[in-house]
Amino acid sequence: MDSGGTTRPGGRAARVREAVRQATIAELGEKGFDGLTVEGVAARAGVHKTTVYRRWGGVEGLAADALDLAGGEPWPVPDTGSIQGDLRALTRLVVAGFADPELGPVSTAFIAAAMRNAPTARALRAFFAGRHEQSAVLVTRAVERGELPAGTDPAEVVRIAVAPLYYRLFVSGEPVDGAIADRAADAALAAARAGILRASRAPDDPA
Q1: Contacts of 159 (CB under 8 A, 6+ apart)
Q2: On the chain, which terminus has fewer CB atoms closer than 10 Å, C or N?
Q3: Is 183's pLDDT higher than 60?
Q4: Cα separation, 138 vs 128, whole angstroms
Q5: Could you tell me if 63 and 145 are in contact, meaning their C-beta atoms sit under 8 angstroms apart?
Q6: What residue ranges define each of the domains in the chain, with the CATH number in brackets?
Q7: Bridge partners for 130 per DSSP
Q8: Helices then strands, each counted (H, E), the chain
Q9: 26-41: per-residue pLDDT in tens?
């Protein structure tokens, strides 16, 4: 997928890419992935549809590129002074994001797209990897404060904390609220404190 040419940053290609990205996000928020069309994105972005087809190929490329760029945006990592407070704030942030009337439909559309096409699935994996890496500082700080065992896998703690929320949102359809978010955070914290979420070692590494 050609994501906008090789002209200098800030040039026309970069402006077109940003306009198309914003148009894609807006269209996803309003219409979902099923309603996303090249024509709709092109009209909203103010570019010709042949430009979109040439650079992004189709709706799959549009969704993947918008998600790829979204992954570079800063993530408001909590810093409450304790690992329990940080994890609870993180899980509540996830719940609030999906409940947001503007952000929620976009996030849901990205996940729906990832379930149906490989380019968006790859972009979604990269997006989550980036979010987990940014959030890992919560666990690193906790280890340094002595709240968690040395060797705790930071990204795995984050995954375990947010996984029940995504299960409820996209698999079981059960309700998700602040209490559920806190429970998920506390369960991940209990596992981390018990030493279950230590980073994996190679077979020949010393224990």
Answers
A1: 132
A2: C
A3: yes
A4: 16
A5: no
A6: 12-70 (1.10.10.60), 83-193 (1.10.357.10)
A7: none
A8: 10, 0
A9: 999 899 888 999 999 9
